[in-house]
Design brief:
There is one protein chain. The chain is built from 6 helices and no strands. The protein has one domain. The chain is an all-alpha fold. The two termini are 29 Å apart. It is 74% helix and 0% strand.
């Protein structure tokens, strides 16, 4: 068994992915967009870390204590955090899409798809209805935007794999 674990937490995986985007953009002369990807991934990673911590505390100790009001309040806090995480998620998509397009690494079509994903991501920050698809715990926040983000990650990963390396990192 190896001493190094290959498992990654969601927050650190996001930051590793953004580091790959930043490296590619810096080599292509678009370091500003790479810095924006790094900043948005740090914000997103922080939000995800807090949300995971609150969920773990709620599940393992607070819910069993029998304080329904506190448990309900923490549940609402988590859903509000998921909605608010739409903004750094959209910024990460925007930084990658705009930077890769400005560097000439992606086509106009992929750029347009990226802009569409950004718009849909920002729209995720408006999901404040009390019930239905547009509620914080509704289908948009739980399913639709996460799928959009996953598709974007897969496409950008494929683009990053075929992007030419112009120099060594070290």
């Amino acid at each position: 068994m190896s001493e190094r674990s290959t498992e990654r937490q969601p927050a650190s995986a996001v930051m590793w992915f953004a580091a790959a985007i930043r490296s590619t953009l810096r080599e292509a002369g678009q370091g500003g967009w790479g810095a924006a990807a790094t900043a948005s991934s740090a914000a997103l990673g922080s939000i995800l870390l807090v949300l995971i911590s609150v969920c773990a505390a709620r599940a393992y100790s607070i819910a069993g204590a029998g304080n329904g009001a506190l448990t309900s309040g923490l549940n609402d806090l988590v859903w509000a955090g998921i909605v608010m995480s739409s903004f750094p998620r959209a910024m990460l998509i925007m930084a990658g899409s705009f930077g890769l397009w400005r560097a000439g690494i992606i086509s106009n079509r992929l750029f347009e798809a990226g802009v569409g994903a950004v718009v849909l991501g920002v729209a995720g920050g408006t999901t404040w209805m009390s019930s239905g698809i547009w509620a914080p715990d509704g289908v948009y926040s739980r399913l639709i935007f996460p799928i959009i983000g996953l598709v974007w990650i897969i496409v950008v990963s494929a683009v990053l794999k075929r992007a030419p390396a112009t120099r060594g990192e070290w």
